[in-house]
Design a protein that fits this description.
The complex is a heterodimer of chains A (350) and B (607).
Chain A lengths: L36 H15 L7 E5 L16 E4 L5 H11 L4 E7 H5 L3 H9 L4 E7 L2 E2 L5 E2 L22 H7 L4 E6 L3 H13 L3 E7 L15 H7 E3 L2 E5 L13 E6 L5 E6 L9 H13 L3 E8 L6 H5 L11 H4 L2 H11 L2
Helix pairs in contact in A: 1-6, 2-4
Chain B lengths: L5 E2 L1 E9 L4 H14 L4 E6 L8 E9 L12 E4 L5 H6 L6 E5 L14 E5 L1 H8 L3 H19 L4 H11 L7 H18 L6 E2 L10 E4 H11 L4 E4 L6 H14 L11 E4 L3 H13 L4 E5 L1 H17 L3 E7 L16 H5 L9 E3 L4 H18 L2 E7 H5 L1 E4 L18 H7 L30 E3 L13 H21 L4 E3 L7 E6 L3 H13 L5 E5 L1 E2 L3 H9 L2 E6 L5 H9 L7 E5 L8 H14 L5
Parallel strand pairs in B: 1-8, 2-5, 5-6, 6-7, 10-11, 10-12, 12-13, 13-15, 14-15, 19-20, 19-22, 22-23
Antiparallel strand pairs in B: 2-4, 3-4, 9-16, 14-21, 18-20
Helix pairs in contact in B: 1-4, 1-5, 3-4, 4-6, 5-6, 7-8, 7-12, 9-10, 16-19
Classes of the chains: A alpha/beta (350), B alpha/beta (607).
The structure holds thiamine diphosphate, iron/sulfur cluster (SF4) and magnesium ion.
Chain lengths: 350, 607
């Protein structure tokens, strides 16, 4: 174990629009293994929150159990955190979000936490299109219990013990798209140029934003035969699109020139501009998004980028029509009908 | 043959087929008894099935106010061919067998100690009503009409009950009234003077209401300020959520926007249901869930998290017959240990034991105050009998001056004042309870990391043995505090000295109190204590120590409350004697009193 600090930390960096410095978004010292993909992902989350100027205390960070789920301790020290139980982060976030719709909910989970023990909670949080950013740090194994294959490990992939994984893998992005997530992306912990804007776009989206971050486990799953290792992912990933994220009210400037551009306007009027080599895939089309994933898989490639967006998706609060005012701010006056009403109920029970 | 003669003290059992619409007719009957000022307690005995299986509705009428199940049946209304023979055989000698004589009874029905009352319900119904869909329902109303004559009831009470029931669907009033009259007239013409059972107006119900416990529980949660509900359907708890939802629609909906001041989330399972409650409570909303045994088993891991991370949660357990899926539509008090010590490691959970709808209401509303004050789960231990049957109950009551006790929560200004001295789990008041903060309260102060892993007073992860033990000891201190906050037991000690005591709780109450009277008639005096909560107060220990022998009455096989008493209190195990009943039907006074008389006889007649 080595102590790790996010590498792109600049003490002299100017504050963001809200007056916060990058260090205001940092957390405790990481106790993950040196080189663990999760740490890079955490650094990207810190960067994204900083760049979006979100007041750190207006974020709630919630996780399950696993190395990845320890992450909330290593970022956003000014935010409340909740390290819950294995596979149950989505239900905790559901309750928290129902209680106060005005915070940003950052859920952090692992592939074991999500694709096995938490598969049901994952599926149903997606179905109810809970307004949250769901970051699933995907290393194809159970890091914390010493490297067993997880359900996202690719068939034929070889981990540290040498025995190949013989079971079919679960593609959580594909499932998330099918289950109605409004925003689905896949990235790589080592690619902060792609990951940071993707996180920012996810944080601006209203509804479920699910991001599968391939995040190699250097200790148990960084072998040459593992499809979640650094070298494999670097060699076999293909970005469906490069993109920039344009927050609301900011002038639109872009230095991308490749291919065509598709703009997607999110609920808060911020814009994602997708620059694509191939204009035939539209990320707002669910069918095409799934096809694109499958086609790349056939070729042995991992498709990364923003895979699907439904800019009009409705989140849980809209679906069940809860009051605009956060429920946790309502008092007795709003909630209790009083004794007179109770006496008339009594009367109807006689 | 002499038939049973009784006014205002007998049991009628309606034998029906489920899904045949008998429920509203049977309710109409029970409500009419209540409205004649006579105490009544109806119990549904129903299958875990939607259509076609036998179901019974057992109505005890008792002007002395004994509301527990009696056990005997004086009259059967036999509407189910499948069970008819058994229903017939189960009648008391001298009882009345009411059946549909559209078909002739076979020879098998030859008891000479039973009065047969045959009313051609099907024929009367088909002759009078065209609509085949309505016929099934109206046939049930015809038997209510016939009973009104046979039992000498006030007919206007029934007609006005029909009018009240169908206030909003007035088209249904005339056919229902006609059906009542048909039955009444036929019985009058053919069975005058046959039935010696009667219901006669009294003034014995006072200002009582008659409602099911689950309706009161849902209402208690609404009055208690619950805003977030996570739940998963399971008999017999579902109607708690339905009740909350119904009243939320009525009282919490913005008429303009249609927005609801509540979030009711049907979860994917009970794990998620409790997760939702914990997430919401952590974030400062009052939240609850309702479930039954199988759900409690699934919730166990989360209950441990809420205990250890000290997050309020309100859970209503409407118990049913276990183990496993057990008898889903039968009652039991079988989850006492599973709830009291829910989850692995050293855990103890606060339990409340309501015994009637008013207590369902009060204890559920109180549970939110307790959970937030103690920062821990509080489990309201109802059961199927209480939850799903109508019970006569003192009226519900709410003190408008009452404020919600949100417990120890620091706001922005308080955090400002405290500077850096705050620690989430610091016991500054000596009651074992720290101060918590809600997410988003202050830009730089008061954030902490909630975890189910071992933590120090500042909520930092720790594997230090001392810090771990210190934390566990503080939780025990909090448990002591809980004893001062939970409702105290109800103790009844007579003037005459008694060496025997009886402890009971929840839905054993009605039967237990009746048993005490039965014992007194036999010259046995017994003092009683009703447990209302866990942890137990000193009063409970004192009560046990004051008696040579204490009977512990409960509806499970293993004497779970007795185990809990022995484990938690400084008492001699052999001082406690179990009186148990666990066949899935509500306990009766006779079961209790005969067990106690037998035990006393066995001990040489000393009580
Ligand atoms: C109910 C339960 N079962 C098993 C465990 C043990 N456990 C802890 S972490 C973990 C797997 C974590 O894998 P993943 O979510 O992929 O996280 P990673 O460590 O790989 O980041 C398991 C099985 C547990 N904590 N709780
Ligand atoms: S075991 Fe793997 S996943 Fe866990 S911290 Fe180490 S590198 Fe990361
Ligand atoms: Mg993993």
């Amino acid at each position: 174990m080595t102590f790790f600090r996010p590498s792109f930390r600049h003490p002299d960096l100017p504050p963001n629009d809200a007056g916060y410095y990058l260090k205001d978004y940092e957390g405790g010292i990481s106790t993950l293994c040196a080189g663990c993909g999760h740490d890079s992902t955490n650094a990207a989350i810190i960067q994204a929150c900083f760049e979006l100027s979100i007041p750190p205390h207006k974020i709630a960070k919630i996780s399950g159990i696993g190395c990845s789920s320890k992450s909330p301790a290593y970022l956003l020290g000014k935010a409340h955190g909740f390290n819950s139980v294995h596979g149950r982060m989505p239900s905790i976030v559901t309750g928290a979000n129902m209680a106060n719709r005005d915070l940003l909910y950052l859920g952090i989970s692992g592939d074991g936490d999500t694709a096995s023990i938490g598969m049901g909670q994952f599926a149903h949080a997606v179905r109810r299109n809970l307004n949250m950013v769901y970051v699933m740090m995907n290393n194809g194994c159970y890091g914390l219990t010493k490297g067993q294959y997880s359900a996202t490990a690719d068939k034929g992939s070889v981990g540290k013990k040498g025995e190949p994984n013989m079971l079919e893998s679960i593609d959580l992005c594909e499932i998330a798209i099918q289950l109605g997530a409004g925003f689905v992306g896949r990235s790589f912990s080592g690619d902060k140029r792609q990951l940071v804007p993707m996180l920012k776009a996810a944080m601006s989206h209203t509804g479920m934003a699910f991001i599968d971050v391939i995040s190699p486990c250097v200790t148990f799953n960084n072998t040459p035969g593992s499809t979640k290792s650094y070298h494999w992912v670097r060699e076999h990933s293909e970005a469906t699109n490069t993109f920039d994220y344009v927050p609301f009210k900011q002038e639109i400037t872009t230095d991308y020139e490749d291919g065509t551009t598709e703009s997607v306007v999110l609920h808060d009027n911020s814009v994602i501009q997708l620059h694509k080599k191939d204009s035939s895939i539209h990320v707002t089309d669910r069918r095409q998004a799934v096809d694109a994933l499958e086609e790349h898989k056939e070729k042995g490639l991992i498709l990364t980028g923003v895979l699907y967006i439904d800019p009009d998706s409705e989140d849980t609060h809209r679906i069940i029509n809860t009051s605009r005012q956060p429920l946790n701010t309502l008092g007795k006056k709003d909630l209790c009908p009083g004794n007179e009403a109770l006496q008339s109920i009594n009367e109807s029970m006689r | 043959m002499k038939n049973i003669e009784s006014t205002n003290d007998f049991v009628i059992r309606f034998a029906n087929v489920n899904g045949s619409g008998s429920a509203s007719a049977n309710n109409l009957f029970a409500k009419a008894v209540f409205r004649m000022g006579v105490p009544v307690s109806p119990k549904n005995i129903f299958p875990s099935n939607i259509q076609g299986l036998p179901t019974w509705y057992e109505v005890r009428i008792n002007e002395q106010g004994y509301l527990g199940r009696h056990g005997d049946v004086d009259m059967v209304v036999a509407m189910n061919g499948q069970t008819m023979k058994k229903d017939y055989e189960g009648l008391l000698s001298g009882g009345y067998f009411f059946y549909d004589s559209s078909r002739k009874l076979s020879e098998e029905y030859g008891r000479d100690d039973v009065a047969l009352i045959g009313i051609p319900l099907t024929k009367l119904c088909n002759d009078a009503f065209e609509n085949p869909k309505m016929r099934g329902l109206l046939k049930n109303i015809i038997y209510v009409g016939a009973l009104a004559f046979l039992l000498d009831m006030e007919f206007e009470v029934l007609t006005s009950s029909v009018e009240k029931q169908y206030r909003k669907k007035s088209k249904l009033i005339p056919p229902n009234l006609k059906a009542l009259e048909l039955g009444y007239a036929y019985a009058g013409e053919n069975y005058r003077g046959v039935c010696k059972l009667a219901i006669s107006r009294r003034d014995k119900v006072g200002d009582a209401v008659i409602m099911d416990g689950n309706a009161a529980t849902g209402l208690g949660a609404l009055y208690g300020g619950a805003t977030v509900v996570g739940w998963y359907p399971i008999t017999p708890s579902t109607s708690v959520i339905e009740s909350f939802g119904r009243y939320a629609e009525r009282f919490r909906k913005d008429t303009e926007t249609g927005e609801l001041k509540a979030a009711i989330v049907q979860a994917e399972d009970e794990l998620a249901a409790l997760g939702i409650v914990i997430g919401a409570s952590w974030n400062g909303a009052r939240a609850f869930t309702a479930t039954s045994g199988p759900g409690v088993s699934l919730m166990s891991e989360f209950l441990g998290l809420a205990y250890f991370a000290e997050i309020p949660a309100v859970l209503v357990n409407v118990q049913r017959t276990g183990p496993s899926t057990g008898m889903p539509t039968r009652t039991q008090q079988g989850d006492i240990l599973a709830c009291g010590y829910a989850s692995h490691g050293d855990t103890k959970q606060v339990l409340l034991f309501p015994c009637n709808p008013k207590e369902c209401f009060d204890m559920t509303a109180d549970a939110f105050d307790l959970a937030e004050r103690l920062q821990t789960p509080v489990i309201v231990m109802s059961d199927l009998d209480l939850g799903m049957n109508d019970h006569m109950s003192p009226p519900l009551d709410w003190d408008d001056s009452r404020a919600y006790d949100r417990g120890k929560v620091l706001d922005k200004d308080q955090l400002e004042e405290l500077g850096d001295s705050w620690g989430r789990y610091l016991d500054v008041d000596g009651d074992g309870i720290g101060y918590r903060t809600y997410p988003g309260t202050h830009p730089t102060k008061g954030s902490y990391f909630t975890r189910g892993t071992s933590h120090d007073e500042y909520s930092k992860y720790t594997e230090e043995s001392d810090a771990y033990e210190h934390n566990m000891q503080r939780l025990l201190q909090k448990w002591e505090t809980a004893k001062e906050l939970v409702p105290v037991p109800e103790v009844m000690v007579g003037n005459a000295p008694a060496t025997a005591g009886m402890i009971y709780y929840g839905t054993s109450t009605d039967a237990a109190l009746e048993a005490v009277d039965q014992l007194r008639e036999q010259g046995i005096t017994i003092n009683t204590l009703r447990i209302k909560a866990f942890p137990f107060q000193q009063d409970v220990e004192n009560f046990i120590r004051q008696h040579d022998l204490v009977y512990v009455v409960e509806q499970n096989r293993d004497g779970q409350m007795k185990t809990l008493l022995i484990n938690e209190l400084d008492v001699q195990p052999d001082q406690l004697v179990s009186v148990l009943h666990y066949d899935g039907m509500p306990i009766t006074a006779r079961i209790i009193s005969s067990a106690i008389t037998a035990s006393i006889a066995h001990k040489g007649g000393k009580a």
